[in-house]
Amino acid sequence: MPRGHWATILASLGGLAFAAVCIGLLFLLSRDYDPARYPGATRIGGGRLKIFSLTQGYVSQDGAYQTTDDFPTVWRWYAERFDLGANRVVNAMENCMSLAKADYQIFTRHVIGVTLCSKKDGTMIFINRTVFMHR
After folding, report:
1. Could you tell me the pTM of the whole model?
2. What mean pLDDT value characterizes the chain?
């Protein structure tokens, strides 16, 4: 085959591989998003899947929720479910605590950030999940 044909074939395969990775990232975010929602919590905002950032190498999704459960119960659930313990980034604010973690996989880095705020009538939950593609 002439050299130009190989370049076209390789470019096509590269484009297909990139499309497959993008579709996989979207699938992972949508599949993983529901498990990040505290059981019984009511959505009060967010929930958007930000795919416009795909050209910059990442996909992001956020959400804001409220539950009547107390702060320690909600904190324990997120700490256990996503392994957000003392060995992870923990920032304490007035009535809020932020937990974050990053996991590296073959071609991606998965980052989750959870901020919990104690309220008189329960706990507010703010979640951000982002998947970065390695370049």
Report:
1. 0.67
2. 77
